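User: Some background: our group keeps a shared notebook of sequences we're curious about, and every so often someone picks one and asks for a predicted structure to add to the entry. Today it's my turn. The entry only has the sequence so far, pasted here. Could you supply the structure so I can complete it?
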Amino acid sequence: AELMRHNVEALVARGVEQVIFECPGCMRTFREDVPEVLGEPLPFGTIHVTELLAQQVQAGRLRFDVYQPGVVVTYHDPCTLGRGLGIYDAPRAIIETMPGMRLAEMPRHGRDSYCCGAGSFVRYDYPDFTEQTGVERFREAESTGAQILLTACPACVTQFQYIRSRLETKMQVMDLISLAKRVARWR
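Assistant: Of course. Here's the predicted structure to add to the notebook entry:
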């Protein structure tokens, strides 16, 4: 509680009105755990970077150039971002507005998405389970015919890059935010 209060006060002292998160776990901690532990609401807003980018697209302030014409991507819903925070539409809104890109959903997506195996530090206690889970999810991504597996969680990106290195596959793994940054055109 002491560290949480310190962090909140440090942000308030700097005049922060909204904190933008890339890590779903960090966002969940601020949005849910900090108010619960401190017994009071946060004095600033929280938003995931995919939500912010989707808002900017909808407002007409952000558009994207073509990354690769005709590329097929699949999107992995991170557990904490999706089921934990309820953020499913924003990543897809970004993908759908990227010209020349087609989204091929995995059979288990949205609320029914399957874990990548890397969440909650499971890898440290159950490394075999983590790898088996990651391989299963990666194979599901490959079954879509996509050339790129996108996700919006640093832990998932790391897990899928590790699994990709263990498998013989041509499928690329990319962070959605990094891809968006490459092709973003701000107005």
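Suggested note for the entry: Residues 34 and 40 are 8 Å apart (CA to CA). The mean pLDDT is 95.
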